[in-house]
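re: ur question from the group chat, yeah i did fold both. here u go
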Amino acid sequence: MAVLATFFAAISSLPSTTSAFYIPGLSPTVFREGDSVPLYVNKIFSEKSPLPYAYADLPFVCAPPKNAKKAWLNLGEVLRGDRISTSDYELIVGQDIKCKILCTKRVSAEDAALARDFIANDYNVEWIVDNLPGATRYNLGDGQANKQWRYRAGFPLGKSNSNIHNHVTIRILYQNQQGPSNGKLIVGFEVSPYSGNWLNTKMMLHSMLYSIDQGDSDLCPEDPLKVGAFQTVSDKEVDIQYTYSVQWIEDKEITWKNRWNLYLVSTDVQVHWYSIVNSIVIMLFLTGLVSLIIMRTLKKDIAIYSEEEMKDEQDEGAGWKLVHGDVFRTPKYSSLLCAVIGSGVQILVMAISIIIFALLGILNPSYRGGFVSFGLFFFVFAGAFAGYYSARLYKVFRGISWTKNAIITSTLVPGFLMTIVFLLNLFVWSKNSSNAIPFGTFFALVVMWFGISLPLSLIGAFFGQRKAVIDHPGRTNQIPRQIPEPIWYMRPRFTIALGGLLPFAVIFIELFYMLKSIWEDQYYYMFGFLSLVFVILLITCVEISIIVTYFQLCDEDYNWWWRSFFVPAFSAVYIFLYSLVYFTKQLSIHHFVPGLIYFTNSLMICIVYALLTGATGFISTYWFVRRIYSAVKID
C-alpha cells in the first residue's frame, strides 16, 4: 500500500494540477522597448455550436491588411478550425495607446444580419499574442474582498443579440527580464470589449461584460461622459468604426513559466480522486474474481483433470475441459477479426504514446493542435504494429494471403472513418466554417495513409508472417461439438451488455471533464489522473474479458473469440448514450449541422474506443485460454 500511495502521489504531482505548461526546451521571447509585437487574429467560436469561423474572413470586421501573412499551421490546428493571420493592431513594447481608430467598416444588411446571428449564438473571438490567447478576466472568489482572477479564453463578439463590440482595451502584462537578455517577457494578454456608437454620439458606453476592475476602463474617444449609445447591428446597412486601446502593465506575480495557470479552470481535485477510488474498487472486485478463478476453481480443475485416478471425481459444473477439441476452432469472419484486432493494437499504441508525451509536458494546451497532430503521427507509424499482430493471428487461422490481410487491416477502419469525415465535411463546407477540411489537408491525410501507414502495415505483416505459428495445446476436432442451450444469464446479449458496463463505470466521471474540454472549449490538463484512469481501464478490460470467457467455457460454449472482443468494447455503447445525455443536459445546440457534427464525432470516438478496449480484452483472453489448456493433460 505504501508503494501505491507513493505512486499515486507522484502521478498526481504531474500535470494533473495547475502547473506550468510550456514545451520543454522552448525559450521565451524577450521583447525590448520599442519592439513591435504582432497580434494574430484566429477564429470565432461558441459553446452553442462546434462550427468555428475564421476571424479574418468575417465580412463585418476590418479587412486584413494587404500584407497580411497566414501563419504556418500544423495538421492539428487545421483540423480544429484554426486560421491564424497577422492584423493591423499595433502593439509597441512600453507604449500605451489611449485610443486609435483601426478602420471604419461599411456593413451591408446581409452581413449585419450575419453578425447579429453570431452574437445571438454567443460567439467569442480568439486573438493571439506571443502564443497566448486573448482572454477576459473573471473573479473566481466570493466577492471584492476575496479576488481570485481567472481567464476565460476569448472575448465576446457582442452582447444582447444586436450590440457588437467595436472597441477593445488590450492589456499586455509583462515581467522585466534581468541579465544579459534585458527586456520584457509577456505573461498575460487580456482583452476588454466595449460597444459604442462613436460616429453618432462620439461617446462610449462605460460598461463591462465581465466583472473586472472599473478603473481599468477608459473612454474612446476622450469624453468626460460615461454614457453613450450601443453600436447595434440589425437588418439594415450600417457603418461601424472599430477602435482600440493598449495598456502595458508590469505584473510581478505571474512568471513566464506559469502564465498559463490563469487559463485553467479549477476543478475539485477531490472529485477526480473519488473517480480514481471508484475505479480502483471496481478493478479490485474483478481482480478478486480472477484470483478466485485461477487460485481456487481453475487450480482444482487442473489437478482433477491431470490425475488419471481422479477422473471419476470431476466436478460436473466445470466443463471447460470438455471443449478442448473445439476451443481453438477458427471462428466465423476470421479475416475480419484479424483486421479489427490489428487496428485495435494500432490505436492502443497511439493512445499509450500520447499519454506518455502528455505526462512529459510536451502535449499541453499551449501547443495548439498538438494532440491531434501527434495522435495522427503515432497512429500512422503504429501501422507496423497493426500489420504484425494481424499477420500473426491470421497465420493462426491458416490464412493463405498475408498481403491481402495486411491491406484490409490498414484500410478497413481508416477508410470507414475517412468516409464519415468526408461526408460530414460536405455539411461543414456548406456552412463556410473554418472547421471544413481543405482539399490540401485531405490530400495530406491520404498521402499519410497510403504512403506511410499502408507500407508500414505491409512491413509489419511481413515480419509477423515469418514468425512461427502460435502453438495451441491439443488438436481441433474435425466435427464441431454441439453447444448446449445456455442459461439465460450466459446468453451473449446479456454477458456482453453486463460486461461492458464495468469498463464504463471506471471512466464515466473522468469522461465528463473530457467532454467539457472537447465541446465547451475548456483546456484539459488533468493528465496524471487521465493516465491512472487509463491504466485502470485497461486492467478492467483484461479482467472482465477473462471472467466472461471462463464462465462461457464452463458452460461448454467454445465460441469465445468474438465475445472476448465485444465484452469490453460494448462499453463504447454506454459512452455514446452518455454523450446523448450530455448533449441534452449540458449543451445548447439547436441546429441540424452542429448537432450532426456532435453525434458524428461522438460516434467516431466511440468506434476508436471500442477497438482499443476490444483488442485489449481479446489479446489477454487469448493468452489466458492458451495458458489454461496447456496446463492440463489432454488425451
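okk and heres the other one u asked abt
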Amino acid sequence: MKMGHSRLLLFFSAALIHLVIPTAAQYCYDTGNYTSNSTYRANLNTLLASMINNTKINYGFYNFSFGEAPDKVYAIALCRGDASPSECRSCISGASSDLLKACPNQKEAITWPNKCSLRYSNRSIFNAMEASPLFAFYNTGDVSDVEALNNVLLPLLNILRNRTASGNSTHKFALQSAPAQNFQTIYGLLECTPDLSKLECNSCSQQVQSFIPQCCNGKQGGKFVTPSCDIRFEVYSFYDPSVEPPPSPPPPSPSPPPLRKFSNGQKIAVKRLSRNSSQGEAKIKNEIILVARLQHRNLVRLLGFCLEGNERLLVYEFVPNGSLDRFIFACTIEGIARGLLYLHEDSQLRIIHRDLKASNILLDANMNPKISDFGMARLFQLDQTQGNTNRIKSLIPFKQTYLILIHMYSGYMSPEYAFHRQFSMKSNVFNFGMIVLEMVAGQKNNTFHIQDNGDGLVNYAWKQWRDGTTSNLVDPALRTDSTIEIMKCIHIGLLCVQENVDKRPTMASVVLMLNSESMSLSVPSQPTFLKDSRTRSNMLLVEHDSRKMRSTQSKTSSVQASEMMFQFRS
C-alpha cells in the first residue's frame, strides 16, 4: 500500500527550526524587496517567461540571467532526472506562477514542487553549493525494524551519492532500489544541480544525509530538499522502476598490479605549444590563470599543466568529438551562447575571449560544446566595457594592410578590432554570430564562395535574408530540421554581426532569443562589408596607420596593397 507524506514538515535554516504546513515547500528570502512596476519585476517576468516557453528542454536544467545591475535577475530551474519533457515544462510553469504568488515582492525565492525546483535571486547563484534552507518531509508510517531499515538505506544512499556526484555538467542524478527484509524493497533518489563540482555535490548530499537520523529515523519514507541537492526514499515505488540502471556486473578477477603508477584510466587531451613560439610562455600562463578559475559545463576544463624545461603542456578533459569546425550541429548553438554568457556576466571574472572561432569550440561525447583556448583572453574589471590592444590577434603580422583586411574579411575579426584595435564583449558577440552563420550554412567563412563572385558568408547571408530567400543559405543536411528554428538562428546571427557595436545584442539577450518562442527580434542592419562609404573610410584609415609602421617599404608596395583592399571589398 502506498503511503502518502504527512503535510507536516520540518524547515531548517541556520540554527532555527520552524514547523510549517504548506501545500508545497516554498521559501521567500529576506534579502530585499521590489515593487510591482519595477525594472527588477520586469526582468524577472522576462526570465521566467523564457524558461516556460523553452521547448528544447535541454538536460532539464536551466541557469539564466537577465538585465543589468542592480536589477539583474539570476534564475535556476531543475527538473527531476526522470521527468519527461512535458512534465518538466508543466512543472516549471506551475512553479513560476506559484512562487510569484507566494513571494510577491521578494527579490529572492525558491520552491520545490514534486518533479522540479525553481529559484531566482538578485545575486549570482550559479556554480555555488548551498545546503540551506533545508526542508524535510517525512512519511507518517513507521517501520517495524529500524535497524534493518538503516542497514539497507544507508548503503543505498551512499551508492546514489557517489553516482550522482560523478555525473557530468549536464546531469547529476541517480535512482535505485534495494531489497530489504520485512518491508521488501527500499526506493531511493538523489540529485544535485549539475553546475556543482563532484566535491560540492558530494558535500551537499552528505550534509542532507547526515540529518536523516535526527528527523526521520524509522519512518517509511522521507524527502529532503535544499537549493543545491535533494534526497528521497520510500518503501514504495515513487518513480517508474523501468528507468533504474541495470545491475552492476560482477567485479573482474584480480590481476597483477601494474609495474608503475601515472595513469588512472581517465582519457585526457594534451595541448603542446611549439618550443619556437615567442608567445608560448605568455599564452600558456594566461590560459592557466584564467581557465583554472572558471567552471561551466560549456567551457573546456583544465586538468593540469607542465612548465618544466622547454616543455609547455596543457592537460584538458578529453572531448572525443573534436572541434566544431568538423561538425555542423544546430543544437550546439545554445550551449556556445551559454558559455559566453557565463564568461561575460555570470562568472566571478569578466572574460573577453578574443579568439572565438569554430576550431576553438570542442564537442564532448554527447555533442555538448566546450569553449577552449584562452591564451588570448583578457580579464576585465566588472565595470570595464572596452579594451585596446597594441597587437592584432591574428598571427599575420601587421605589416601589409591587405593581409589584415584579408584576415578580417575571411575570419572572425570584428570591424572595431580590425580597424581600431578595440575589443569588448560585443566583439565576442560578433564572433558568435559568425559561428552561427557557419553552422547553418555548413561552410567555413574563409572558404565560402558563391558562383565565383567573391561573396563572403556575411554578405551572402545578408542578401538572402534581405531578398526573402534565406533558405538558400541553409546546409541541405539541416533542411529536414525545424525551419522556424533555423530561420531564427540566421536572424540572430545577422543581429550579432552588425557593424554598429551598440546594435549587437548582449549574450544574455541572445540566450533569451534562442529559448523564447514569443520574443520579437529586431531587424538587423547591413553588415560591415556592404557599406561602401564607411568601408572605404575605414580602409583608408588602416592604410594610413599601417604606412607609418612600414616606412621602409616602397610606395609601389603600398599602392599594390591598397588596390588589393578594394578588390576584396567588391
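fwiw on the second one: The longest strand covers residues 5-13. The mean pLDDT is 76. idk if thats what u expected
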